[in-house]
Write a structure and sequence with these properties.
heterodimer, A: 137 residues, mainly beta, 5-stranded mixed β-barrel, 39% strand, B: 374 residues, alpha/beta, Peroxisomal Thiolase, Chain A, domain 1, 12 helices, globular
């Protein structure tokens, strides 16, 4: 990989550190509000529902559903050129928060249905643990 | 209020690749043409409402443009809503005129992503880059997939929008892309991010566009030749990130259109011609549903019926839209709406008296509606 175009790894900051740290320990967590109980991703410094700054983290069950997906046939970043075609999906955890992720283990990248059940699998990307999902069936 | 403010003049540059032209130069050419069209002297302009060039944010761009154009606005500046900003700025300019904040307002936009930087159009998506989540088309593809799965919308139906817009553009001498498209061509075009093909995606264009607004009363006093009344406007917004959308198959277009139709006192069925923002075919399809031109989920059948093509019940994008005339974000749709109401469009809808116009930005994140009519 050329120096000026490294693999786009996530930037860890004070707000999202617990998220990435939990993944490194093998757990997917989501953020929740200590005042109103609202649950969300990605990490924020305040609750987007009640605006409280007192937030905590909960471990996700790993059960989720597929909201929608795309399959890249062209690379928009050189680091992904050798992975074509690849899946990117919007996934909703059973606890409510939604996230962008990848589906893995697909025999056919288009053999999917909206709202179908998914299960969490962690994978490693350039040394960083990230969440991915597989069909739960 | 409806009809108290008019679009007095319209102007634009050529569309396409305009090598070596700055966005200031493109804006000023468009403003010069719009003022000449209105027959209003530049010295009367006391409002300057600018959508900054999408490709390159620049601090105080509106003030720098005012200086370059020799305009000293009493009110003005830039507004950031992505592609919805142009229509929204027309609403703000109309309110400013009604509130006595200015008398003659210019709304303008220019950009040069084709010959200059296109960085803004292939931007990475924050922390989600690690998943390979890049590029504007992918966001629209994510929405299109859900719509297709939920409502049975097909690629051929999306293609009907591209075919209709390209047919209109082919007859428009000012269009950037004048090559008509058949449905077979469309189905054969490369998939970029499934389910979207290359021909679902709008053009990338250099160019500038401007409109001049004033009160109906001042337009009459100044002898403006063809003022077009602004009957209604509205806006809507939803989450910035596609993943955070509570519902992927309906958009802020619904709230925006409801406000605009209520203000104008008209219904979707009254509309003769529409200019529907078609950055991607799915955008136009879902906007038609959200505006109430057809029922939710039935946009596919509606567009495939021929309703949106020339001679149909609701011709759309009669100059070619973003898919064929120019990929510029939205002001050219307003200009085409003005031409339709004036009766001077290339693909004129006979007797067009009411035109609905949509602008939208982000990935169906912001929306803005205008209703023009006599």
């Amino acid at each position: 990989m050329p120096d000026h175009d490294p693999f786009p790894l996530p930037r860890v900051d004070e707000t999202n550190r617990p998220y990435w740290q939990a993944l490194a320990e093998g757990r997917l967590v989501y953020q929740c509000c200590k005042a109103c109980g609202h649950a969300w991703l990605p990490a924020r410094s305040e609750c987007p529902r009640c605006l409280a700054a007192e937030t905590g983290w909960q471990q996700a069950s790993g059960r989720a559903r597929l909201v929608s997906w795309v399959t890249y046939r062209k690379a928009f970043h050189p680091a992904f050129a050798d992975r074509l075609p690849y899946n990117v999906s919007v996934v909703e955890l059973e606890e409510g928060p939604r996230l962008i992720s990848n589906l893995v283990g697909l025999a056919d990248p288009e053999d999917l249905a909206i709202d179908e059940p998914l299960a969490l699998v962690l994978r490693e990307e350039h040394g960083v643990a990230i969440p991915a999902f597989r069909k739960a069936g | 209020m409806p009809g108290n403010v008019v679009i007095a003049g319209i102007g634009h540059t050529a569309f396409g690749r305009l090598e070596g032209r700055s966005t200031y130069s493109l804006n000023i050419e468009a403003i010069r043409n719009a003022l000449a069209d209105a027959g209003i002297e530049k010295e009367r302009v006391d409002g300057l409402f600018v959508k900054f060039p999408t490709s390159a944010y620049e601090f105080m761009y509106g003030q720098k443009l005012a200086e370059a154009a020799g305009i000293v606005p009493r009110i003005g500046g830039v507004w950031d809503q992505g592609g919805a900003a142009n229509a929204s700025l027309i609403g703000y300019a109309a309110m400013a005129i009604e509130a006595g904040q200015c008398e003659v307002a210019v709304v303008c936009f220019a950009d040069n992503p084709k010959s200059g930087t296109r960085q803004a159009y292939s931007k990475p998506w924050g922390a989600d880059e690690v998943f390979g989540w890049f590029g504007i088309p992918a966001g629209y593809a994510m929405i299109a997939q859900r719509h297709m799965q939920q409502h049975g919308t097909t690629a051929e139906q999306l293609g009907a929008i591209a075919v209709a817009c390209r047919a209109n553009g082919a007859r428009n001498p000012a269009a950037q892309l004048r090559k008509p498209l058949s449905l077979d061509d469309y189905m054969a075009s490369d998939i970029v991010v499934s389910p979207l093909r290359r021909d679902d995606c709008c053009l990338v264009s250099d160019g500038g566009a401007a409109v001049v607004l004033t009160s109906a009363r001042l337009a009459a006093r100044l002898g403006v030749a063809a003022p077009v009344p602004i009957l209604g406007f509205g806006q809507g917004q939803t989450s910035a990130e596609v993943a955070q959308r509570p519902d992927l198959t309906t958009t802020a277009a619904r709230a925006s259109a409801a406000t605009a139709f209520r203000m104008a006192g008209v219904r979707p069925a009254d509309v003769d011609v529409a200019q529907i923002y078609d950055c991607f075919t799915i955008t136009a399809l879902m906007t038609l549903e959200d505006y109430g031109f057809c029922r939710p989920g039935e946009g596919g059948a509606f567009v495939a019926s021929g309703a949106i093509a020339a001679g149909g019940d609701l011709p759309i994008n009669t100059a070619g839209g973003l898919l064929s005339e120019t990929g510029m974000p939205g002001l050219q749709l307003v200009i085409e709406g003005v031409r339709q109401i004036r009766g001077t469009a290339v693909n004129q809808v006979p007797g067009a008296a009411l035109c609905a116009i949509s602008n939208q930005g982000g990935v169906m994140h912001t929306h803005s509606t205008l209703i023009l009519g006599n």
